[in-house]
Amino acid sequence: MFRRLELLIGPEKLAILQQKTVLIVGLGGVGGNAAEAIARSGFGRILLVDQDVVEPSNINRQLVARSTTLGKPKVDVMEQRIVDINPNCDVVTYHTFYDYSTKDTIWDNDIDYIIDCIDTITYKIDIIQEAHKRGIPMISVMGTGNKYQPEQLTIMRLSKTEYDPIARVIRHKLRHQLNLKDVIVIASKEVPQKPLQETSSPASNAFVPNTAGILAASYIFRIAIGETVTLS
Predict the structure, then answer these.
(1) Long-range residue pairs from 1-6, CB within 8 A, at least 24 positions apart, any chain
(2) Which of 77, 95, 158, 216 could join 180 in a cystine, given CB atoms 3.0 to 4.6 angstroms apart?
């Protein structure tokens, strides 16, 4: 199954990945692609957290969204997809919103790595704080809405982010609690576009959030096998 991957990293590192657990919070355009890339990279256990069901507005950009999955919980759709890819992968799902009332159940797992793909800033901050308190390597994906250019996405330190309103708030909230150089994120160097209509939801497409998810999985994969990742 992982023969082509084994040719790249060797059987010893593949065996290491098969013993590791990745927590992925949020299964939208970013999280769905991150989850699939992690599953296809040989990780043995994946924890999925998302309270949403698939809606028609998701179809233009989310891996879990198809006409046949409308109305289904995203965690269930993603679990089935992962099991179809790798039946040996242990998938644990939490069809719930990550917040102060649910977080203890989620953190009551042995977690090796974390990919944060949620939009709610309060709980993005909480995930970062918990990960650093517990010494768990993680990456947090900043805003991908209202953007056209996936090539502008970069793995960087939170202290280096620009043009990203989510990152700006998180920097402000965490600057007296953590060394922002230790907080690793995916962020775009692209100035956000202005949507053509006023809306409470950002405009989005099939390539910027999806690319962010792949980059996040790539970062976790590389640090899991002991590779050095160059950061901005």
Answers:
(1) 1/86, 2/42, 5/41, 5/42
(2) 158
- Is pTM beyond 0.85? Reply is yes
- Where in the sequence is the domain holding 99, given as residue range(s)? 3-224
Q: How many CB atoms lie within 10 A of CB 70?
A: 13
For residue 19, being part of any structural domain is answered with yes
CA distance 49 to 25: 5
* Amino acid identity for residue 119 in this structure: D
Q: How far apart are CA 121 and CA 189, in angstroms?
A: 19
Half-sphere exposure of 68 (CA within 13 A, CB side): 2
Is residue 232, in this structure, part of any structural domain at all?
Answer: no
Q: Which token pair is 58?
A: 């998701």
Q: Is 86 helix (H, G, I), strand (E, B) or coil?
A: coil
Digit-coded pLDDT (tens) for 17-62 = 999 999 999 999 999 999 999 999 999 999 999 999 999 999 999 9
Across 125-135, average pLDDT:
97
Provide the CATH number for the domain around residue 134.
Answer: 3.40.50.720
